[in-house]
Each structure stands twice: as structure tokens, then as C-alpha cells.
Amino acid sequence: MHPLQQKVIKAFERRFGTRPSHIIRAPGRVNLIGEHTDYNDGFVLPMAIDRATWIAISPRDDRQVQAHSLDFEETAVFHLDHLKKETGWGEYLKGLAYVLQQEGFQLSGWNGVLATDIPIGAGLSSSAALEMGVMRAFTAVSSLTWQPVRMARLAQKADNEWVGIQSGVMDQMISANGRAGHALLIDCRDLSTCPIPLPEGTAVLILDTMTRHSHAESGYNERRQSCEAAAAFFGAPALRDVSWQHFLARAAEMEPPMRRRARHVISENERALHAAAAMQNGDAAAMGRLMNASHASLRHDFEVTNKPLDVMAGIAQAQPGCFGARMTGGGFGGCAAALVSAEQADTIGAAVAREYETVTGLQPHIYVTQAGAGTAVIKSSRRRTTCFGNCSRFIYRMRENERE
Ligand code: GLA
Question: pLDDT (tens digit, 9 = 90+) per residue, 288-303?
Fold first, then answer.
């Protein structure tokens, strides 16, 4: 049994004097490529990781929710009939109850205990894991069918409408739909997915700079607005609809900052599709080159890296046995990710840690991660993963673009 599973069960028994009826695990994620493309209706290639939020729950007879977080040492308490906006981590839970009820779902109350080993604010989607775990909790106690894609979309709506974060849908999608040993190519317009195995003999290293982002203070919402303005400039519904050729034809007419933002998103969409094809061909070297190019684009065009992320990615990219490295997630701090030879992963991790500390004075946290499964009830862990997409369609689109 995973130590966090044991921990939430024990704490649940102490707090509520009974055994929990369900144990839920909802993973964090690392995005391999396709950054800041999700809210442009584009393509992303994340994988669920082996770090997760664990929740022990039991239904209640009334419509109250009492959820205790072992990490925050705080209990969120609210009534499903009287949802009121306040502040704190409990807002994520209330937001989910709000959107589920808005959709007409009949919810039951529950008692729960939560714990996570996903570092908070590190760009590994601790909040999406919390959201999808709580979504699964609501569906389990309310005897509703678990629909991972629909629930991911609803969790994004809760983020946007209740919590006040204008995030895209990538994090919730991968936390809900992750598949062991695979990354998932997600089309963020129609939410079709296609599992892509990691190239044989490779591993993914998470390189935590130990600097932290904050969505509210960061330029995330500002970047999103620039992208919408750029799409409007092209008369397109979203930047996903603007081809590289179309961009080049009109680039000179754009203000430089908007041109840079658009250039990142349009080129990143192409990189994400090429990366999925490279991974499918087991071509780690090609995948690595695309990751390096993605970091450069996020640094110079989208301007969402910080100095430690640039230092970390640069050091990793220079290591023998490292195919490529880039910042991952929203940026402005947090983690980078590197695709490395599995055999050399530990040596590379140690070398990067030493050099990063020498250059920045910060002690990084570096570890190998495994591509894990998506959100599930662990007690009856027979989960089916379906490929909703048509893999050849993605590759076809890429070839079409190449021809243009
Ligand atoms: C954050 C958001 C995602 C996505 C990434 C950037 O993680 O929550 O929706 O926009 O940033 O790719």
C-alpha cells in the first residue's frame, strides 16, 4: 500500500471513527511539450506522474462536505445547498460542487481526508489533482458515472468561474485520463486523446528549481488575453487556426510583443504534433530537439521562464545522455523536465543538481518520474482507458501542415 494511502486511511479513522468507503488517487502531471497552447484550442503532450493526491472518503446522510487536508492542517466545511464564495483551498471543492449542481447532478455530502506528495505551486498540477480527486469523490458518493473527459471540462469551468483562474484544460484532462507508460496527445479543442508511449530506454527527469509561481501574480491571464487579441487580429476563432504560413504573411503588421506571443503558440502547436510523431517512432533525439526549441520559444517569445528555469534547462541540455529539456507547466518558476537515457538518469540528475546549486545557490529537487495512470478509485481499481482520438488523424494533420 502506498504510504499516503495508509496515511489518509489512518487519519480518516481517527477523525471520523469509521473506515472510509472509498480511496481515491488523482495524479499530478508533467507536460512534455505543447505549452500555453491549451487555451488556444491547440495540442499538448503531458503525462500523469507517480505523485498524487490521495483522498479517503465516506458518504454522509446530509448534504454537508467536511474535507480535512493533512498538508494544510485545515478542514473545509460547506453545505451543498448554501455555497458561498470565500477564500482558501476549500474554494476548489465548492467550485466543483457548484458546476456539478449547475449541470443537474444530484450530489451527496461526504467526509474526507486528503494528502498529497505533489509539490504545491511547482508547475506539476497539484490543484488539478485536487480537483480531479474531489470530482471522483463526488461521483463515487453520489453514485454517478465517472466521465473523465466531461469531468475535466467541468473542473476547468470551476477554476474559471468559481476560483477565478483562467486556466486551460490540459491539467485536468491529463490528471483524469493519464495512462501508465504513456504521454497523452490531447487536442484541446475537441478533447480527443491519443496515448503515446515514451521512447524505449528513456526516462523523464523532473528538475524542480525550487522557485515558485503564482497564477494570480504572474502574467498567465495577461498571456491569455494577448493570445485572444492575436487570434482576433488574424480573424481566427483561436491561434490554433492560424497556420505558420499565414502568420509569416502578416507578422510584420503586428506589434512586436503580440507577434512574439503568436509566434510561440503557432510554432509550439507544430512542435507538439512533431513530438508525438517522434515519440511514436521511438526517436528520442528528435523529441529532445523539439523540447529544447520549445524552451527557447517560451523564454524569448512567450517570456514565461525565469532565470533559474533557464539555468536549469541549459545545464540539463548540456549533459551527455540528455535528449532535451524545457520548462514545464505555466512557467514563471517551478519545474523543468528532461528526457534522458534511462540508464544514465541518476548520473545526469546528480550532475545537474551539483551544477545548478553552484550557479544559483539554490538546492534543487531532482527525481525520475514514471508515466502513471489517471484518477481512479483505488479500492476497485479496474479502470479502462480508451483512446478517444484517432492517432493517424493527428499525424495526418502534421503532414498537411508540412505540405502547406
Ligand atoms: C498551467 C495551466 C494549463 C496550461 C499551462 C501552460 O498549468 O493550468 O491550463 O495553460 O499552464 O501550458
Answer: 999 999 999 999 999 9
Query: Is the four-CA dihedral 166, 227, 268, 391 of positive or negative sign?
Result: positive
Of 38, 223, 335, which is best to mutate to test ligand 1, by the most ligand atoms within 8 angstroms of its C-beta? 38
**Is 401 or 78 the better-scoring residue by pLDDT?**
78
**Ligand 1, atom 3: closest residue by C-alpha:** 168
The label of the residue with cell 497564477 reads 215
Which atom of ligand 1 is nearest the CA belonging to 36? 12
Q: Record the pTM.
A: 0.92
In ligand 1, which atom is closest to the CA atom of 38? Answer: 10
| Active centre residues (catalytic) | 171
- Report the CATH fold assignment for 197-371+398-403: Alpha-Beta Plaits (3.30.70)
H helices of 38-110, where?
90-102
Q: What is the pLDDT of residues 318-351, one digit of tens each?
A: 999 999 999 999 999 999 999 999 999 999 999 9
Pick the CATH number of 3-195+373-379 from 3.30.230.10, 3.30.420.10, 3.30.420.40, 1.20.1250.20: 3.30.230.10
- Which residue is listed with cell 495577461? 222
Instruction: Parse the chain into domains and list their residue ranges.
Output: 3-195+373-379, 197-371+398-403
Q: Which helix (H) or strand (E) holds 377?
A: strand 376-377
